[in-house]
Specification:
single chain, about 240 residues, 8-stranded mixed β-sheet, two-stranded antiparallel sheet, about 25% strand
Length: about 240
């Protein structure tokens, strides 16, 4: 396979659940907002406030991993200097809905070059040709098996500057019971699973997943997420 064919293979096999088409009727009814988890305004603003609290400044370059239809983007884009926001997602239809509908509705298209949004299911952010200061994957690892999380860390390690930070949320399985097959998370009532989507992980699993890669792992834990997702911070070494 060529490099592009390999990427397409990964996208079609690993993320086909999230790469489907959106009809004009679905977009008109704002179903794309539901598809990416709802909580449109609450979670969008929550992401910005959290990263600003972590030191995000307007002159930094941000990568939004699994940006979807820009639930976070519509808050990050006016905060950051023009062109400093980049988004990557497996779903081209969601990116189109974000740019053509959501950004247009709030008058932000002129602050985001369309080429700053990339449809790619293999996390190949290096394709932008940009070095990032900060990256965020909000509710991405919750949908990924472990080997794809490691793939994400490998690819982002090529695009994030030394000292840069990558924040990722996940559903946590506590150490006891370590053999839990399914867990219910409150608030939110989401049930996560050991072996299918949505997945849960132990905090120390991320130490193993980052082993041998250019990342330090810092366990943030509870960050106030309305559906009980926890946070892990990866620091590029």
């Amino acid at each position: 396979m060529t490099e592009d064919e390999t990427s397409a293979h990964h996208e079609s096999t690993a993320f086909n659940t999230y790469a489907g088409d959106l009809s004009a009727e679905q977009i008109a009814s704002e179903w794309h907002r539901t598809w990416i988890g709802g909580l449109w305004e609450e979670m969008g603003r929550f992401q910005l406030d959290y990263l600003v609290g972590e030191g995000l400044t307007p002159n930094m370059t941000l990568l939004d991993v699994g940006c979807g239809c820009l639930r976070g983007g519509i808050h990050f884009i006016p905060y950051l200097e023009t062109g400093r926001y980049y988004g990557i997602d497996v779903s081209a239809p969601l990116l189109d809905a974000g740019y053509d509908v959501e950004l247009a509705a709030v008058g932000l298209q002129d602050r985001l070059p369309r080429e700053n949004l990339l449809a790619n299911g293999s996390f190949e952010a290096w394709r932008f040709g940009v070095t990032f200061d900060v990256a965020l994957a909000q509710s991405v690892f919750t949908h990924l098996p472990a080997n794809f999380i490691r793939r994400c860390l490998i690819e982002l390690g090529k695009a994030i500057a030394p000292g840069g930070r990558f924040y990722a949320t996940y559903f946590e399985c506590p150490d006891l019971p370590a053999d839990a097959i399914e867990l219910r998370h409150e608030p939110g009532g989401i049930v996560s699973y050991l072996d299918h989507d949505p997945y849960h992980y132990r905090a120390r699993d991320f130490d193993w997943l980052a082993d041998g890669l250019p990342w330090g792992v810092e366990h943030v834990g509870d960050w106030g997420h309305p559906r009980d997702q926890r946070m892990v911070r990866f620091v590029r070494t």
